[in-house]
Amino acid sequence: MPARRLSAAWVVPVEGEPIPQAAVLVDPDGRIARVGPDAEVPRPPDVPEARFPGAALLPGLVNLHTHLELTGLEGEVQDEDFAAWIVRLRERKARRPMGEWADAARRGLLDCWAAGVTTVADTGDSGAVVRALAEADGSGVAYQEVFGPHPDRCAESFAGLKERVLELGRFASGRVRLGVSPHAPYTVSGPLYRAVASWARGEGLPVAVHLAESPAETQLLRGATGPFADAWRGRGIPLPDVPGRSAVTWLDEHGVLGPDTLCIHVVQVDAEDVACLARSGASVAHCPLSNRRHGHGNAPLRALLDAGLRVGLGTDSVVSVGRLELLAEARAARELAGLTGAEALELCTLAGARALGLESEIGSLAPGKWGDVAVVRVNGAGGGGEPTSPGAVYERILAGDRGDVMATYIGGREAYRSPAA
Question: For residue range 305-314, what is the model confidence (pLDDT) as tens digits?
């Protein structure tokens, strides 16, 4: 890939203060060679330069939770009750022609790039996203979902997962990684959780799980009651044999939690659950707008951060939130936990990279890391003139939306450029 020099009114390294009138030089291998004031960053005569006056260069955003295969289904599932919403979504997915999954994943990936996102952590069962990432020379982790709430069918579900992972493994190379996702406590049995977690660790596969998301999930595990319990009874699925556990405790008892486990949502938790997650070394994908849309409440973000957990931000799917706007998630997280502008931006950059164990590769603009760069307009963003201080730069970035993203680079390669740039 070609070397490239980028310059702008500001460079926001994340690990370090914003730099006015600065530049980033990316080597031919796609790695960052230099970051600093414009006058101090070399201008090799054979390296093309892109200038962005009135903009800031920041690390490509890291979206910790997407379902890109659902692109195009926004607005089609409207149930307010979460358990009913899950049923309707499953029915809608079943009606979708197989040929649409690949196109949906490709469109979803392009939408992410247009919003400044360069790395995704995606969960899905079609296999379309890992293919899309590989075809586009993208960056991310694709977690292959597995379902199976009936313990008697554990072997069948587990065998199907292994077959799919073997089939999709050929797409996992370069910056594309494959993982597994035993979906959620209301769709996966204890034996299947244990089998998948043990096998994944033996194979070196990261794990993602929707966890402690809704009150209905808590009702199922703590008292074998509620809409998910009713659905299990209707399908002849045995209810949890030892009720009284929280979702976090239940997964911990089945060997699911660990440093390679990404826990998605984590809303319905108490202090003991937070301590358990911290001991396990698991990371958390916080999705504030999806949590609110489904009426789950607010995750205890401040408590999760204070406990030392690796927490980043995710958007969830377009079916939940309509548009994938990670900066909007950062604004919501900031309000929820009382974060500074710098802390909010870090949640969707370096903190997201840490949650995936990729902080040595992405998440900040530093020599040796991948040249993943989002170019965001700061002159006029949020209604103001050009910012004159580091604090104002953070405020302008966080005030923006996808319309303020001027360009996105992955490993120095231009993945997106706004027609207005």
Answer: 999 999 999 9
DSSP-assigned letters across all residues of 327-392:
HHHHHHHHHHHT--HHHHHHHTTHHHHHHTT-TTTSSS--TTSB--EEEEE-SSGGG-----SHHH
For the stretch 53-76, pLDDT in tens is 999 999 999 999 999 999 999 877
pLDDT at 169 over 70: yes
Asked whether residue 287 carries a pLDDT value surpassing 60, the answer given is: yes
Residue 381 scores a pLDDT above 80: no
pLDDT of residue 383: 54
Distance from C-alpha of 193 to C-alpha of 219, rounded to nearest angstrom: 19
Q: Which of 175, 302, 345 is nearest to 284 (CA)?
A: 302
High-pLDDT (> 70) share of the chain, %: 98
- 98: CB partners within 8 A, 6+ apart: none
Q: Which of 390, 383, 362, 315 is nearest to 112 (CA)?
A: 315
- 107-128 residues labelled b (16+ CB within 10 A) or e (exposed): ebbbbbbbbbbbbbbbbbbbbb
C-alpha closest to that of 248 among 231, 225, 232, 271: 271
pLDDT tier at 303 (50, 70, 90 boundaries)?
very high
Contact 207, 256 (CB under 8 A): yes
Other Cβ atoms closer than 10 A to 170: 11
Pairing of strands 413-417, 32-37: unpaired
Say what angle helices 128-135 and 98-114 make with each other, to 10 degrees.
Answer: 50
Bridge partners of 134?
none
CA 99 – CA 72 distance, rounded (Å): 13
Counted residue by residue, the chain has a size of 421
Measured CA to CA in angstroms, residue 399 lies from 230, 341, 343 at distances of 44, 10, 14
Between these two residues, 362 and 86, which has the higher pLDDT value? 362
Could you give the residue ranges of the DSSP H alpha helices within 115-245?
128-135, 154-168, 190-203, 215-223, 226-234
Got the DSSP string for 172-185? --TTEEEEEEE--T
The tokens for 188 are: 């996966």
Q: Confirm if 69 and 126 have CB atoms less than 8 A apart.
A: yes
Q: Are 328 and 322 in contact (CB under 8 A)?
A: no
Chain centroid, CA 7 distance in Å: 28
Task: Please tell me the distance from the alpha carbon of residue 117 to that of residue 91, in angstroms, as a whole number.
Answer: 30
